[in-house]
Amino acid sequence: MAFVLAVSPLTPVAAAPAAAAPKGATTQLIQAAKSEGTIVSYGLPNSWVNYGGLLSGFNKEYGITHKDTDMDSGTIISTLIAEASSPVADTTDLGLAFAKLVEDKNLSKPYMNSYWAEIPGYAKDPKGRWSAAFYGVMGFLVNADKVKNVPKTWDDLLKPEYKGTMCMKNPRSSATAQMAVLASAFAHGGSETNVQPGLDFFKKMVDRGIPNGVSPSSANIQKGECPITVQWDFEALRNKDQNPNMNLKVVIPADGTVAGLYIQFVTAGAPHANAAKLLMEYEYSDKGQLAYAQGFVHPIRTNVKLPADLLAKFPPAAAYKSVHFPKDYVGLDKAGSAIADGWTLIAK
Hints:
The chain is of the alpha/beta class. It folds into two domains: 27-135 and 262-311, D-Maltodextrin-Binding Protein, domain 2 (3-Layer(aba) Sandwich), CATH 3.40.190.10; 137-259 and 316-346, Periplasmic binding protein-like II (D-Maltodextrin-Binding Protein, domain 2). Helix content is 34%, strand content 16%. The longest helix is centred in the C-terminal third of the chain and has 18 residues, at 329-346.
C-alpha cells in the first residue's frame, strides 16, 4: 500500500503547538497517577526517539518521576515473562513484530487511550492490548562527498559504481537489517509474507560486491567509512542533524520501502498502572507526538501539526509515497526468522 507521510508539510505551523491537557487525562486519572508518583519502563532510554524530551515534558506536567532500564526487545520480553508473578515495569516500547508475542503471553493490560479513534487500524489491537505511537521508514543515508551519483532506488544500488560502498548490519542478528531486506522485498513485489524477492535482490548485491562488510555506526559514518548506509530514516536524519558540516543526503527509495511501527502498552500487573495509562495519554497527545517527531520519527496521528522548521528537516511528503505498512504482524514476526535463515544461504 502506498502511503503519504503522515505529518504533511502542507499544514505547518509557525511554532510548536501549545497543547492542552491530554484528552483522557481526567482529574481522577491524574490524581491516581500522582499518588503512585513514579513510572518504571524497560527500553526507553533518553536517546531513543527523544524519549528523554518526552518524559521530561511528562514529568514537568504531572510531577511523576521516571526510571528506565535499557534493554533490547528480546530481553524485554524475557524479563516481562520472568517477572510475571512480581512485576517491575509499567510500560515499554517494542517493534510491531513482537505484538503477537505480547498477546500470546498476556504481557499487557488492555487500555484504549482517548486518541484511539485517530490511530489507524493496522497500528492498534482491537482489544486495546497495544498500539503504535510512531513509525520509521527504511531508507539510505548517502555521503554525497563520497558518492558522485546519489542512488534513488534499490535497483540503483546494483550499479557497478556502488561496489564496496554500502554499509548495513547483519540480518542474521539485526532486526533493522531484516527490515532492510523486507523493504527491498516490497520494492520487488514481495511483502511481509513473501520475503524471497528481498533475499534474491540482496544476493545480487552480495554477488556484485556492493556491501563493504562494515556495520554502520555514528562514528564510522563521521569518518567517511560508510558512503551509503541502509538504515531507518530517523537514524539517518539524526546522523545528518548531528553532522551539519557533512554533505549527507537522506533518501527514501522510490521503488518501494517499508514502515517500522513501534508499539507501547501498559504491562500486565503494572505496579503503577495509572501512571502508565497517563503516559499513554501523553504519548498520543499533541505534545507527545511532537516530542516523537523531534526524535525524527513519524507521529501516528495524522492531524498533528508540526512546526515548519521541524518539517523542513524531513524529506518532502512526496518522497514517502513508496512506503508500505505491514498489515500482518504475525507474518512480520515470521519474516524476521525467514530473512535470518535465508541470509545464511547468500552471505559470503
